[in-house]
Amino acid sequence: MNIKNFDFLKDGLKYLGFGEKLESDLKANIEKQPADFKLTTENEFKRGDKTEKVEYTLDFRKGDQGDMYFLNRYHATLKNEEDPTKDKTQTFYITKNKGITAKEAYNLLSGRSVNKDLTTKEGQPFNAWVKLDLEGEKDKNNNFRVDQYHQGYGFDLEKALAKFQIKEMGNDEAKERMVRSLEKGNTTQVTMIKDGQEQKMHIEANPKFKSLDVYDQNLKKQFQKNEKEGKETGQEKSKEKKETVKADDDDDSPRQTKKKKRGVGV
Predict the structure, then answer these.
(1) CA-CA distance, 151 to 162, in Å (whole number)?
(2) Phi, psi of 117 (to 5 degrees)
(3) Which residue from 12, 125, 181, 219 could staple onto 186, CB 3.0 to 4.6 Å apart?
(4) 188-238 per-position pLDDT tens digit
(5) Tell me: the pLDDT tens digits for 222-232?
(6) Closest C-alpha among 155, 153, 177 to residue 166
(7) What does the alpha-carbon distance between residue 165 and residue 161 come to, in Å, rounded to a whole number?
(8) Helix (H) or strand (E) holding 192
(9) How far is it, in rounded angstroms, from Cα 26 to Cα 35?
(10) What is the Cα–Cα distance from 202 to 8, expressed in whole angstroms?
């Protein structure tokens, strides 16, 4: 067995958030020298009072030459205990032990955004927020489309945080922990100050809308002023549309319905 290769893969599993629990199985499989093998595991994550489970299948493949093995991808499935048909699965690709971590995979499958340092096909590094399009159609590999929000898109996390009175913003160490947590896609607890009173709240980064999603202690979403206005405007437009349709129904002229075109991914 190639000890250096084993140590490299072992370190990769730790970096990716799988800990040490797969080490013995990894070693046993490498010693058998198959062309490829799979390892399975699961992690549990707590969000408020709810515990959610993610199952992982890691694919290892032997190189064309020599005895080196590589972890090129893993499959993550966010389980829905009430309705298994609503399980969400995505394949995440790994390059030299780097990529989406186990916790980040959970956050992405939960609909949150993650900030990552990535590379282009030409090997050029860049930074972007990534988010899975969980409502869209899957691709030929049965994966959700990955939307990317680059620096030029205009989302600035610190500017979004500055719009709220958050106690942690006044402490450099606490601020750094908060920002790092949000960049990993976590639902992050903060202390907000409203009318002179401190309130424990939860926030998530929302780069698509260049803002934060805010929740109370029970993880109930708190709509901001602009969100309420948008909702009310939408209701008014919906009302107007219904009235127009009703008026159209009173005459015998045929109506044409235009199909909406799907937007282009970021």
Answers:
(1) 18
(2) -85, 120
(3) 181
(4) 999 999 888 999 999 999 999 999 999 999 999 997 655 544 444 445 444
(5) 976 555 444 44
(6) 177
(7) 8
(8) strand 188-194
(9) 14
(10) 37
